[in-house]
Amino acid sequence: MSSESDAAQGAARATGRAVSQVRRMSGEMYGATLDGGRAVVVKRVGDPGALRAEVAGLRWLAEAGAVPVPAVHGGEHGWLVLDRVGPGRASADGAERFGRALAALHREGAPAFGAPPPGGPVEAFIGRAPMRNVPGDAWPRWYAEQRVLPYLRRAVDARTLSTAEGAVVERVCARMPELAGPAEPPARLHGDLWSGNVLWDAEGSAWLIDPAAHGGHRETDLAMLALFGAPHLDRILGAYEEVTPLAAGRRERVPLHQLFPLLVHTVLYGRGYAEETLAAARALDGRHPA
Questions:
Q1: Hey, which bits of 55-136 come out as E strands?
Q2: pLDDT (tens digit per residue) in 27-69
Q3: What ranges make up the beta strands (E) of the chain?
Q4: Pick the catalytic residue: 137, 157, 192, 285?
């Protein structure tokens, strides 16, 4: 495990500033204060591809000028150095600002479904799990082939899901075109937008961290916000739809967009998430065409 002195050296290299104070926040993440008082977060990212993906993703999201993203000072030698977001809590007004800004971020678009951020690798990550960014034209087929099925195979191979249970998810993938709703252009996604990757500052405004950024379907980010419970979610979604209305049937499609993250959690954490995956898949499998 890295030490405070390693983190201080990483921060100094990235910023060109001396470090006056550093402390461990959790695991391989540190808070550091630079000479002059600027506060930064220093995170150890051992895999070079993961580091490259995170830096590219943060810069691609920031480029949109929509949802605030901490400034990236450096991403080299295994260390990611970012401005620190001051602690705060979500507010109703901040949630509405976030909803409108998220709609603007998605509207910036991407070259294709699965397109990585400029400079980002094909072999990327969602959290600590691998995620391939291989571009495709039609979202239903791309989502099935590049997101859902690879993790389904891993779950079945590990016997976390049985072959019979996996067949339910396979049937949903075969029906993906009829379940996916109207076609949409690729959106610029955060890609791992659960509530822990949204920080709220002292003014109640939302900031994005830890992206798995790529071109995707905008409802995927919204479904991720719902998966583990974002604060003021109704206000976020209401404000989002003021800017960019969603196609009819969005609520019924939430389990579809949650299949991938649920399968990732199934592979990483086991049978509890397998049950949630199956519940989502069975609900979709039992749905009749509109």
A1: 72-76, 79-83, 123-126, 129-132
A2: 889 999 998 889 999 999 988 999 999 999 999 999 999 999 9
A3: 19-26, 29-34, 39-44, 72-76, 79-83, 123-126, 129-132, 187-189, 198-200, 206-208, 214-216
A4: 192
The partner residues of 198 in beta bridges, in order of sequence, read: 208
What are the DSSP calls for 172-240, one per residue? HHHTHHHHS-S--PPEEE-S---GGGEEE-TTS-EEE-S---EEE-HHHHHHHHHHTT-TTHHHHHHHH
Residue in the structure block whose two tokens are 């009749």: 288
Q: Which residues pair with 132 in a beta bridge?
A: 123
- Segments of the chain scoring below 50 in pLDDT: 290
Rounded (10°) angle between helices 163-174 and 250-269: 150
**Nearest CA among 211, 169, 165 for reference residue 191:** 211
Task: Choose among 7, 31, 27, 22: nearest CA to 87.
Answer: 31
In the sheet where 29-34 sits, what is the strand order?
19-26, 29-34, 39-44, 79-83, 72-76
Q: Verify whether residue 83 is a known catalytic residue.
A: no
- Is residue 116 within 8 Å of 214, Cβ to Cβ? yes
pTM of this prediction? Answer: 0.94
Amino acid of residue 119: G
What mean pLDDT is reported for the chain? 94
How far apart are the C-alpha atoms of 284 and 252, rounded to whole Å? 8
Query: DSSP state, 145?
Result: I
